[in-house]
Design brief:
3 helices; 34% strand; 34% helix
């Protein structure tokens, strides 16, 4: 098992203790490699009255995936930060009829460098991420979000 995987599993255990809702979403084992993060969820606890994925659950998993990516990245940089989503735009593309995943990747190095420059100089920074909710290879929803990190003092 890679260090990234151990870190993400420990992170998920910690997260479930911090945000009780997560324990009820049927989350699977995270896949994190230092550059991308995938979180999976079962349909059953996230179903709506039409038998498809509840939009709020899709939004929650996408928001959480981006938040977790920023948090994990900062922890790897030796930073202890509060991370919050500042704003986001959601686009629902197709219904979810089975288990689903949220996938995000870190942005290009230039954007990460700018982010870390702000963290170093101001103790805070903003990172924009794109997250996809997928059912298999089908994109069901996208989130474009701005996440803000503030160094804990």
């Amino acid at each position: 098992m890679s260090n990234y995987q151990q870190t993400s599993e420990q992170f998920l255990d910690w997260l479930k203790g911090q945000i009780p809702l997560i324990s009820h979403m049927g989350l699977g084992k995270p896949a994190y490699d230092g550059a991308s993060l995938t979180l999976s969820a079962a349909l059953a606890p996230n179903v709506n009255d039409k038998g498809t994925g509840f939009g709020g659950s899709l939004a929650t998993l996408a928001t959480l995936c981006g938040w977790a990516m920023v948090t994990l990245y900062l922890r790897e940089q030796g930073r202890d930060c509060d991370v919050m989503i500042r704003d986001s735009q959601l686009k629902y593309v197709s219904p979810v009829t089975g288990d689903f995943t949220a996938i995000t990747r870190l942005p290009e190095q230039a954007e990460l460098d700018t982010f870390m420059t702000f963290m170093d100089s101001k103790g805070r920074g903003r990172l924009n991420l794109n997250v996809e909710i997928r059912q298999g290879d089908t994109v069901a929803m996208t989130l474009s979000g701005a996440y803000v990190a503030v160094e804990r003092r």
